């Protein structure tokens, strides 16, 4: 956003035109060229950008500091790209939502009986849902892959729910899933509604995560050492997916630019989904090794002598000095 504000204010660039650019973009906080298809909707939609988000970004420049939920070891290139015109950035992450004690949760009970790193979690965030055709492609992929699974399947939102999905009843699942799917996979998987995501990722049985790539989910996956197969849906998730796969090598892609707001969004086919599941569950992959390494670094960042603890202390000192 800070770079787009410079393009707009200092160079007179209509940033909404970048969405239609035929070439990849050079953005200082990314080491590699960025395809226009992964740019967040709010940056390339003229009304959103010109009427709201450019004003927010200008205000960011007036701040004395910006607190970011990340850590230096994860995003060194991005953090080094800031110049003296940018407020000081304090990296205080990863800030992870604590695991809730849910001893009676049936999904967690089922996980306890599964072997280590054999279960793939499919979970798409608080606003994640798919129409029936896409649900069936996912189901076909899961069944063909042969892996154990937990699938958080949510009902498309009604008008009253304002974009948030609802829950299926047990009888409703048969209306959207391929005939016989639940019976054929009953011994190796669970189709459920909401799941306690952090608690599921924390279980050693989980070996892969098909995710919408919201930033909290990205940090949780790294904290617990579970590789992600990317499937962004909305907001900034396409850019998160691109960074995870192309910049950091910490994920595999099912899609980098899937977008529910795109009226021409194509169906992601079962073959693509199955390929992503198999890759994310590969126990010997380079991605898994890098994720495990980053797991250790994420925890060290918050320990004595760690980068995020030092940054937090500096933030406190700077607050005190301002008073």
TrEMBL record:
Function in brief: May glycosylate diterpenes or flavonols in leaves.
Organism: Lactuca virosa
Pfam families for this protein: UDPGT
InterPro entries, per database record: UDP-glycosyltransf_plant (IPR050481), UDP_glucos_trans (IPR002213), UDP_glycos_trans_CS (IPR035595)
UniProt-listed SUPFAM superfamilies: UDP-Glycosyltransferase/glycogen phosphorylase
PROSITE patterns in alphabetical order: UDPGT
Protein name as annotated: UDP-glycosyltransferases domain-containing protein
Family of the protein in this entry: Belongs to the UDP-glycosyltransferase family.
Keyword Transferase: yes
Keyword list, A-Z: Glycosyltransferase, Transferase
Residue stretches spanning the membrane: none
Keyword Transferase part of the UniProt annotation: yes
GO molecular function: UDP-glucosyltransferase activity
